Amino acid sequence: MSEDYRFQQYSGGCQCGAVRFHATELRDNPHVCYCRMCQKAVGNLFAALVGVRHEHLTWTRGEPAEFMSSDLAARGFCRDCGTPLYYRGIGGEHLSMSIAAFDEPHAVPVLYQFGIEGKHPSLIQLNKIEELGTTESAMPNEVGPIRSTNHQHPDHDTATWPQPN
């Protein structure tokens, strides 16, 4: 995998759009972490994270709230919608940003796994689990109404949010 992904410009933010950020460079550590603390912080089986040094990160709208998950670590999130945004080691040189919070999460490869002790056993066989298709094919009756009432911020920067009616 090329390291070109590291030197791209990235924007992202929370689900409601109250917090937005811009990163000018990523660290070479995109990973998933299965540790129990990361699981609880994101409410899922793992956290997908990539480091961004403080000097390469700008908060472009709002600022995240923080929860001290230990004496040595803080978790950043949107105080309005609850979207998990980062893990921060106290005194560290970078934040570990949630890859899914980026507008184009597919542009950031996942190269490493940490916290293997907490890995859910079914994830080992994930590629063997039945796929139910796309959201559109699996939930055809729900997609239209959800899309027409969507309050989620789009995956790009906006001058203002929420958008005027």
Distance between the termini: 44 Å
Q: How much of the polypeptide forms β-strand, as a percent range?
A: 25-35%
Low-confidence stretches: none
Query: How many H/I helices?
Result: 3
| C-alpha geometry | globular
Helix content: 10-25%
What is the CATH C-level name? Mainly Beta
Secondary-structure element series = EEEHEEEEEEEHH
Oligomer: single chain
CATH fold node name: Metal Binding Protein, Guanine Nucleotide Exchange Factor, Chain A
Q: Structural class from helices and strands?
A: alpha+beta
Radius of gyration: 17 Å
Q: What's the number of extended β-strand segments?
A: 10
**How many structural domains does the protein architecture include?**
1
The largest beta-sheet arranges its strands as 6-7-8-9-4-3-10
Mean pLDDT: 92
The name of the CATH architecture is Beta Complex
The largest sheet, given as strand count, sense and whether it forms a barrel, is: 7 strands, mixed
Task: Please tell me about this protein's structure.
Helices cover 12% and strands 29% of the residues. It is an alpha+beta fold and 165 residues long. It has one domain (3-119): Metal Binding Protein, Guanine Nucleotide Exchange Factor, Chain A (Beta Complex), CATH 2.170.150. The protein is globular. The N and C termini lie far apart (44 Å).
Which characteristics define this entry?
alpha+beta; 3-stranded antiparallel β-sheet; globular; 7-stranded mixed β-sheet; Metal Binding Protein, Guanine Nucleotide Exchange Factor, Chain A; 29% strand; 165 residues
Put the structure in a nutshell:
The chain is of the alpha+beta class.
